[in-house]
Protein 1
Amino acid sequence: MVGGGQGAFIGAVHRIAAELDGEALLVAGALSSNPARARASAEAWGLDRSYDSYEQMAALEAKRDDGIDFAIVAAPNHLHLPVVKAFLESGTHVICDKPLAGDLDQAQQIAKAAAVSGRLFALTHTYAGYPMVREARDWVASGRLGELRKVQVEYNQDWLREPVERAGNKQAAWRTDPERAGISCCVGDIGTHAHHLVEFISSRRIESILADLTSFVDGRELDDDASMLLRLEGGARGTLVCSQVACGEANDLRIRLYGSKAGLEWRQQEPNALMVKPAGEAWAIHRVGDGYLGEAAARSTRTPAGHPEGYLEAFANIYRDFMADVRRTAAGEPALGNYPGIEEGLRGLRFVQASVDSSNQGSVWVDL
Ligand SMILES: NC(=O)c1ccc[n+]([C@@H]2O[C@H](COP(=O)([O-])OP(=O)(O)OC[C@H]3O[C@@H](n4cnc5c(N)ncnc54)[C@H](O)[C@@H]3O)[C@@H](O)[C@H]2O)c1
């Protein structure tokens, strides 16, 4: 793993998710930009090998007979390009956190490096790992909603409501810094999850957007709030709202999709339920673990019916599908690619770029 040292946010989640099914073990890391902290973090996790830099790790692991099978990238956005490239070029598969990079140009460079290397690449858009999100995708694909007309997605948080980046919050410091976050804060950080969720569940691309980005906190260079109109391929319309200054909300991600026959609603804070809303009939709550669910939801569920599972397991579902491909390709079989990858990452950055361009031009329609 690169990143994820003591005090980091998402690295520990990656470790749990990778190891949850007993199919992988974290053995090596360049866990921090500070070598002493990297070593202390590796020791606390009982890792065999701690490196002072990701360059050193990529080079030395590739030379070992028992070197790593894949690398996890859990470092800030500006490092995705150099770190991902270093591992791909050393012949190592990579699983990287979103967004793919800080801007579209960096994302395209990663795409090129991945294509040249022929190695596997996964992007941890966590929400695509939830069983009921996969069930919602099946609903849309099977035509049970009828013709898709409207998608409404919201992702609201409040942890950037004050200038915490100037009060020692490390996660906020890099996310609000254009040098390290890229061209956007809120849209890049959580808008990309909402964008991916729309395209994943609907199986349709967002073709164009009209966006209004703003920053409510004085002195903040990047957006902390955004509202958008969406046009999807096939004619559906939509709205996407994301905010990191929405007081009272910790992580309120929800999506509603409406077709000509029925609607669907999924909320991250009640992830084991999918609300089905047929026109003119009673609503129904479909639940994780029940026998009527489709294959994708069923194979993404670990606990018995009625026992909640959530964030860590959703993350682990992305890992499980990725690791299945690591094993398949090692055995000479083709990869299945049942997880977000380069294409989804590129689309995410096209979406971020289009939202920034739209807003900067006075909120005009911009194609993705
Ligand atoms: N999938 C999700 O839901 C989700 C959630 C949170 C964060 N993320 C993504 O994960 C990434 C990390 O975010 P975070 O909130 O954990 O950040 P963080 O600031 O908490 O942690 C970043 C870690 O990277 C380390 N680091 C920095 N430079 C390094 C270097 N040169 N070599 C090695 N390590 C280095 C830091 O020391 C720290 O340990 C970001 O790309 C973010 O967008 C994704």
Protein 2
Amino acid sequence: MPGRLEDKVAIITGGAGYIGTAITQAFCREGARVVIADFDASKFDDMSAKLSAAERARVSFIKTDACDDTQLRSMAAQVVAEHGRIDVLVAMVGGSKDALIHKMTDEQWDQVIDLNLRSLFLSCRAIVPHMMERQYGKIVLMSSRSYLGNIGQVNYAAAKAGVIGFANSLSREMARYRVNVNAVVPGFVDNPRLANMPEKYRQMRIELNPFQTAAEPKDVAEVILFLASDEARQVTGQAIRVACW
Ligand SMILES: NC(=O)c1ccc[n+]([C@@H]2O[C@H](COP(=O)([O-])OP(=O)(O)OC[C@H]3O[C@@H](n4cnc5c(N)ncnc54)[C@H](O)[C@@H]3O)[C@@H](O)[C@H]2O)c1
């Protein structure tokens, strides 16, 4: 039986991270070819070590800073030249720099808005023309439950709320081109990077999960797989919550 993404070409920006690895494995399992567009080659090496030989054969890496328009356009052109098309974009780049507002610097504000929102704008702007031309595409953007508000995260919450508005607007622009645009809104997803998080904060995040547990990356990956597949052809402009109410 063909996979749910058989022969599809998927780009994952910021894809060498923890959740990106799980998405890559799910996409490979379902027959996609996956291009990881991440600015950290060493993270891609770490990721490759976790993949099976069969998965590695389906995955390639293009070093790309998702906050750099020139690099994104060149990466998109390279993917089209090598694979003939771009069917799926998963925009994963994001991160936080927490501080209470009276202590938050301009840099902390700008960095978080750039990383979570500007990267999204630039990635979509570089890639949608290829999808519009073919009248086909699936775009999945990463928001976070934190958009509802956390102490010390006015920057991150504003950016992740912005991701949802961005997805809503882009879905309306893209429907006539048969391009679906959705956002995923995860709660707390376990990540070794967060191993040093104080236990008190970890517990606070877990208590926000309906099942009182931290989600695993694959829990998010399987929802993104659905949104990237043709099973979701009538789903657009949605913000799908995972591991949170
Ligand atoms: N981990 C969670 O609990 C959680 C919850 C909700 C939402 N999210 C969102 O999920 C996404 C991924 O999270 P993660 O936990 O897998 O993070 P991660 O740090 O493991 O992965 C992020 C990846 O992005 C890459 N990256 C960072 N800046 C980049 C840039 N400018 N250009 C290209 N690549 C860049 C990094 O090299 C890394 O590989 C983020 O948008 C995050 O906000 C995470």
